[in-house]
Each structure stands twice: as structure tokens, then as C-alpha cells.
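To: structure subgroup
Subject: Chain for Friday's discussion

All,

I'm putting the inputs and outputs inline so they're searchable in the archive.
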Amino acid sequence: MKTHRIVFQVNSEDPATMKHAISNSLNAIKSYGEKNEPVAIEIVAFGPGVHMFRTDTSPVKDLLQFLHANNPDVTFSVCGNTKMIMERTEGRPLSLIDGVQVVPFGIVRLAELQEAGWSYIRP
């Protein structure tokens, strides 16, 4: 059986956008789960969207912890380039929530997943 693969882009620090990415992920997991069809989900944050995964500025930290605890196969990716710029600007390392992977460039990660056949969603 083919795995449904969905990537969500978050490049805004708007909490509503972040919440949509999480609720859309949960809806997809529920819908495909009811059909016994596998699904892989990745949320890629870059630019201001990196705030989504920061322990100190995330407006959705509790929702992400719930999502990750109940769906450990959902992948969270942060743009390493944005992270480095923020660290340089703020003069300190960023602390990310548990389970976040750092990719070199968020936009390249999105392109790679789309080229590999993933469905691209921008909430």
C-alpha cells in the first residue's frame, strides 16, 4: 500500500498559520488512519516560521508536544540558515522543542520533498 506523504510549509510567525499546519496534520492522520492507509507528514519551518519550533517563542508549543507524543512519525524540520541568522542576531543559541531536526535550508527541503512526490500544503 502506498504511503500518503504530505509536507506543510510554515514561513510565518502567525499563530493561526501554525495552528492550521498542526490541525491539518491531525486531520490527515485521522482520515487516512480510518481507512487504514499509511501517512507521513513533515512540517518545515523557515524564516519567521522558525518561531513555531522555538522553546522560548512558540505560541503552539503545547500543541506540538501533543502532536509529537501521539504521532511520533510526524517530522518537524527547521531551516538551519534561518536558525543561524537568528542566533547571530540575538547573540545566543536557539533552543528548539524536542524532536525537531535542523536541515541546511528549509526551502531546499521543501523542493526535495516535492520532487520526491510529496504533496505540498501551505496553510
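Points worth raising on Friday:
The CA atoms of residues 69 and 107 lie 26 Å apart.
The radius of gyration is 14 Å.

D.
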